[in-house]
Design brief:
Shape: elongated
Number of domains: 1
Oligomer: single chain
Helix content: over 70%
Distance between the termini: 7 Å
Order of helices and strands: HHH
Length: 89
């Protein structure tokens, strides 16, 4: 296995993790920003006010995107296992 192959495997793994996490992180960012603006306007400084809606939104996106996430992860893993013989030799 060459150095380029190891770097390519690591890059693909990081890109896969980023692709799977992006929807949830984007929703958490948007909800957090909206709650922060609401807290600034109303001057409410309660920590649970920002945590609970983010938790609910991320959970909803996770449950909605779970079939796609599993399909993408299985496809990536199958491709990785399929390429193992060429990586070892």
């Amino acid at each position: 296995m060459t150095d380029a192959a190891v770097v390519d495997l690591a890059r693909n793994a990081v890109m896969m993790a980023l692709a799977l996490a992006t929807p949830m992180l984007t929703v958490a960012l948007g909800v957090g920003l909206g709650i922060s603006v609401f807290q600034s306007v109303t001057q409410i400084q309660d920590q649970t006010l920002s945590f609970v809606p983010k938790l609910m939104a991320v959970t909803g996106v996770f449950l909605l995107g779970l079939p796609w996430m599993i399909q993408t992860a299985v496809k990536y893993t199958a491709e990785l296992f399929r390429s193992l013989p060429s990586l070892v030799s």
